[in-house]
Fold this sequence. Notes:
There is one protein chain. By secondary structure, the chain is an alpha/beta fold. It has three domains: 2-146, NAD(P)-binding Rossmann-like Domain (Rossmann fold), CATH 3.40.50.720; 149-175 and 213-261 and 283-298; 181-207 and 299-382, Orthogonal Bundle (Rna Polymerase Sigma Factor, Chain: A). It contains 15 helices and eleven strands. The strands form two sheets. The protein has a seven-stranded parallel beta sheet with strand order 4-3-2-1-5-6-7, sandwiched between helices. A four-stranded mixed beta sheet has the order 9-8-10-11, covered by helices on one side. Strand 10 and strand 11 form a beta hairpin. Helix 2 (39-49) packs parallel to helix 3 (63-72), helix 5 (105-113) runs parallel beside helix 6 (124-139) and helix 10 runs parallel beside helix 12 (304-315). It starts with a strand and ends with a helix.
Amino acid sequence: MKKIALLGSTGSIGVSSLEVVDQLAEEFIVAALSTHRRIDQLYEQAKRFRPQIAAVTGAAVSDDHLAAFARLGVELITGADALQQLAGFADYDLLVNAVVGSIGFRPTLTALQRGKPVALANKETMVIGGELVSAAAAQHRAAILPIDSEHSAVFQCLLGESEKSVEAVLLTGSGGPFRTLAKEAFASITPAQALKHPNWSMGPKITIDSATMMNKGLEVIEAHWLFHVAVEKIRVVVHPQSIIHSMVLFCDGSIKAQMGLPDMRLPIQLAMTWPERKPSVFPRLEFGSRLSLTFDEPDTARFPCLRLAYDALRQGGTAPAVLNAANEAAVQLFLEERISFPRIAELVDASLQAHKLEIKPDVEGLLSADLWARKFVSAAGK
Ligand SMILES: NC(=O)c1ccc[n+]([C@@H]2O[C@H](COP(=O)([O-])OP(=O)(O)OC[C@H]3O[C@@H](n4cnc5c(N)ncnc54)[C@H](OP(=O)(O)O)[C@@H]3O)[C@@H](O)[C@H]2O)c1
């Protein structure tokens, strides 16, 4: 049985990961779980899966909580550093990283440096420190198994193929809830409207990223580092039905696509059971129903975040870390109704322009660029 340490178990990906564990109970042992603030939900998960360790990173833990977890035989660790401790010292075979935001970067790196494979939902890891993370994976021979549905699709399309035969990676994206909305209407978009994604049910940050198309931009950077594909070879295709999860175009003109229902349990399960495929009870795509697949070009005039992400990847160094942190901070301001929807892209753009680029940053350099961008956005967003 595979011992799983699941960071972010109370989120959308975390809960879906535990559904995968439930339907393949004979395959997995849950060794560790974590939440930021939802301690009651963590307690219910701990009662059900009995991990050795549970971590709480962003809320005060009462003596009652400590006693309740102790009665389950679960060690509770707390504080901002708890994910690092968990990744560094817990006994597990696979780290499933399902936290949101740049906080996921260090635990990914730590797990890889221990030679542990990582099933990675936390795309911010690859955006901030893709170069260091892929070097650590290669050095310690630890696999990074993508959970993001697009990257899982590319991963599957590339099986049995050589890197040099790849002409382009075609990342599909639904276009989000504002795909057809006129640019003039963007200023009055509310958080409630932006939080209604047409196809996927996800946590709030990635849902806003999908609405601005920053999500696709982050995925372009993630794809570059995961598959070692040059930026010019990564294209975005708008595909509103979210049935084709991504494609690879090969040098002979052949295109492979990976399809399925928009259900994250599919790519999560593959990453968790890899190198095997296991049966699942999750719903299948039905071709009997009326199924039409359409494709379009992305519109970077209405969705400038996508262009900014390409620019940051081309600049390299600390630029993607700044893009990511500025975006996290701006999305938070938008969710708090303190800035408008178009202001997210403006603040990310301003951060990239004001930032003093460092070309070969180490971990500390990346984290200080991240902190700088958050401070910049919080000052500029006032
Ligand atoms: N959801 C999807 O369908 C989907 C698809 C592809 C990729 N992803 C990626 O997967 C990651 C997770 O997304 P999600 O939608 O599952 O997010 P989510 O629902 O917001 O869940 C995030 C998880 O991380 C925890 N967390 C939040 N802030 C934290 C912090 N500062 N320190 C430590 N833990 C923290 C949350 O704890 P609380 O519960 O206490 O808030 C929760 O357990 C993101 O990187 C996202 O881009 C998601």
